[in-house]
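Example record for the data management plan.
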Amino acid sequence: MVTADRAAPVELASAGTAVVTPDDRGRLTRTHHFLDPSLAAGELRGRREPETYDRHRLLTRRVRGRSGPLDPGALARLLAVHRDDGAEVCCHAPADGTLGDRRATLATVAVDPEGRSLAVHAGGPCTAGPSIWTELTAPTR
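Corresponding structural encoding:
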């Protein structure tokens, strides 16, 4: 959920819902597992695909050293993490992969809630140069 002055992931599960809050510096890292302890207790995905925890730890470390908002280029550099870096955030489908094993990062999105805009790059963060973002701005009321 994003408003002009706040962004927070809302986790939804059959066991309930939870709003995840940022750390004391206002930073929040989100990958593909539940962060809320009560929802995480019944989760299967993280147990079946534990690399989500590796991605979360790595991104949390990378975000911790940053201050202020990130422009799209800085966000892309932060997310351009591959398997050899210790976690695969930017995914590339193997040419010889079988159906179900051809995961790829298809888009990189930078959200500016205050500016009511999105910057979208068609592709993974490692291919996002400064001039290949599509800017989308919501109309004012």
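Summary line stored alongside the record: The mean pLDDT is 87.
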